[in-house]
Amino acid sequence: MKIGVIAGDGIGPEVVREARKVLDASASKNGFSIDYTDILMGGCSIDRYGIPLTDEAIEAAKSCDAVLMGSIGGNTTTSPWYKLPPEKRPEAGLLGIRKALNLFANLRPSILYDELKGACPLKSSIADAGFDMIIVRELTGGLYFGERYTREQNGLTTAVDTLTYSEEEIRRCAVKAFEIASKRRKKVTSVDKANVLDSSRLWRKVTEEVAKEYPDIELSHMLVDNAAMQLVKDPAQFDVIFTENMFGDILSDEAAEITGSIGMLSSASLNETKFGLYEPSGGSAPDIAGKNIANPIATILSAAMMLKFTFDMDKAGSDIEAAVKTVLKEGYRTGDIMSDGMKQVNTDEMGTLIAERI
Ligand code: IPM
Ligand code: MG
């Protein structure tokens, strides 16, 4: 396996190191070998080359079967990276690589583990029902990729961002959402703001067309403001949530937090091939970087997604997920998911424990 590694900034290098440990354990158990290629992106690329993503980095990523990523970015008020023009900041690297590799479908599973019910911020009558959903977020269109500018007009500064979707951009991602639903509980909730936005009305129309190809899947529509509310009121109702880029960005943080910690949320960004970029959905957490206290589980679960989606190694991927559950069941917790009576461990201890259970 040829795996590109973007360790990135903040806690990225620490959590990626643990995911590699677990992947290496899986490789020796299952008899495959991994060739890792380090790739610079984000703030560390700015420090070295002055830009967050070089053409060489894109080419290096393209030459791999998959990319494992940590996180990019720093403290937006204190880091010198944020004195640069927007297109030279760390986030531009992440958006750039998603676009360059055409990673239009972002999968973010949100599962409440029985062991973490105590860390779930929802009241127990809701947490007890549990939940297991996956957000399919469109990742290369919409507001984050539309034309934007800031200009002076009649002495007033005005900023403009545009939200554009073509039917093809919606369709190809809808197909992914329905394909995923067909292997799960067969429910797609498409989230939009069709009572206001044209792009959402097109979203609904195209999603309904795609749904006709999947007669055994139940499609419903939900407005995004209601979806934000339903996620904390009754998360068990969701199986697959299909939504546009910005709504998915926001709702996936919310869906992560109700699992107990954003440090639990893995993700896969896919295109039409088997290639994928796998990353935890949480940020670079600069405040705890370098302290060996970050939760590596989201990155480890992202590596499990890599084995499943890119390499079709479902069993090896499930073994990693099972190892995570076992370690949680045994009472080990990083600080973010710590509760009374549990054993607190740091980043590398958590990685080692999970690798040992493979
Ligand atoms: C995420 C992040 C990124 C996004 C940022 C860092 C550009 O928040 O992956 O959710 O908005 O996509
Ligand atoms: Mg986000």
How does this model look, in words?
40% of the residues lie in helices and 19% in strands. With 358 residues, the chain is an alpha/beta fold. The protein has 2 domains: 1-104 and 275-358, Isopropylmalate Dehydrogenase, CATH 3.40.718; 121-258, 3-Layer(aba) Sandwich (Isopropylmalate Dehydrogenase), CATH 3.40.718. It has a 10-stranded mixed sheet, with helices on both faces. A two-stranded antiparallel ribbon has the order 6-7. Helix 7 links the parallel strand 8 (187-192) and strand 9 (218-223). It starts with a strand and ends with a helix. The relative contact order is 0.16. The chain binds 3-isopropylmalic acid and magnesium ion. Residues 73, 91, 94-95, 249, 281 line the site of 3-isopropylmalic acid (IPM).
Mind telling me the CATH class of the largest domain?
Answer: Alpha Beta
Spatial sequence of strands, sheet with the most strands:
2-1-3-12-11-4-5-10-8-9
Structural class: alpha/beta
Q: What CATH architecture of the largest domain do you see? A: 3-Layer(aba) Sandwich
Q: Which cofactors or ions or other ligands sit in this model?
A: 3-isopropylmalic acid, magnesium ion
Rounded mean pLDDT score: 97
Measured distance between first and last alpha carbons: 19 Å
The CATH H-level homologous superfamily of the largest domain: Isopropylmalate Dehydrogenase
- Content of β-strand: 15-25%
CATH fold naming of the largest domain: Isopropylmalate Dehydrogenase
Q: What general form does the structure show?
A: globular
Rg from Cα: 20 Å
Topology as a string of helices (H) and strands (E): EHEHHEHEHEEEHEHEHEHEEHHEEH
Q: Are there runs of 5+ residues with pLDDT below 50, and where?
A: none
Q: Number of DSSP strands?
A: 14
If helices are DSSP runs of H or I spanning 4 or more residues, what is the number of helices?
Answer: 12
The biggest beta sheet is recorded as: 10 strands, mixed
Number of domains: 2
